[in-house]
Amino acid sequence: MKLFRELAPLSIPGLHAAIGTFDGVHLGHQQLIQAMVKQAQNNAVGCAVITFFPIPAIVIRHIQTPITLTSPEEKAGLFEMLGVDYTYTLAFNQQMAKLTPSEFIHSLVSNLPIKKLWVGEDFTFGHQRSGNTTVLKELGAQYGFEPIIVNHFLQNFEKISSSQIRRWLASGELDSANRALGRPYSLGGIVKQGDQRGRTIGFPTANLAIWQGKILPAAGVYATFALVEGKVYSSVTNIGFRPTFVENETNAQVECYIHNFERNIYDLPVQLFFVERIREEKRFKSVSALIQQIQNDVTQSEEILNHVEFKTGLLTGPTKTAS
Prior knowledge:
By secondary structure, this protein is of the alpha/beta class. Helix content is 29%, strand content 28%. It contains ten helices and 15 strands. The strands form three sheets. Strands 1-4-3-2-5-6 form a six-stranded parallel sheet. A six-stranded antiparallel β-barrel has the order 9-10-13-12-11-14. Helix 5 packs across helix 6 (133-143) and helix 7 runs antiparallel to helix 8 (174-181). The two termini are 33 Å apart. The model is unreliable at 315-321 (pLDDT under 50).
């Protein structure tokens, strides 16, 4: 798959493209993109996803809090798994936000030989979201492409959306979020130097520096898989504010204890996959009480993970599970 950060011209006879934010690449997104890929393959033409960074809502609504489910790199990796040939991640800024629907579509077709353009039924575009699927059909007739409008994907009679997944993560409903994503929610970051308190109580943790735009699951303890240098390890992860040791912590920390793991992995990237929420974060009256609870968390995490088929993305991960 080829990656582009701007609308570079593509010199091929024809192209099927899907356009949208696709944050999270949830089951609804996957259904749309898979349909586009299949038809492109049947018609022997290339296929592309056109997406945006940052999420348009962040720019338009001036959102300050982290809301992103998937970074551009994560999205591109998932698109590649789905069989996409080209990914265009366009910089969404105030200049783009001011384009009229016609101006925006003109910028696409001036660079890309789009024959069919796939969108969700609630797709809007152009200044103040003035373009919708009706406008898109009119522009398709003008510019010579066919819009393909895809209905919402329903799960248990409920529309799956990135906004709903964010709400589930924020409220600790990890199971609902994972079902909608079709895979465990993940966080990736570089292991940074911590206060090494975990080591002194017998549970050394990897403290991850997470990209600030990424939404964190609700504070609590989770059964997780940790991907380290191509190998998968069972782990238990705490997201929160360490109330037993720290007063008035303002920034949530991500600390992962990897089962039966003794290597020094400072400055290495680690990807965490959140399988199940074990409990809320709480303050303990003593360090000994905390140690006992951590031991219980580790045992419970191992029991949970022993009965889970691990997935790194959309397919069963090609990684090796560490012994």
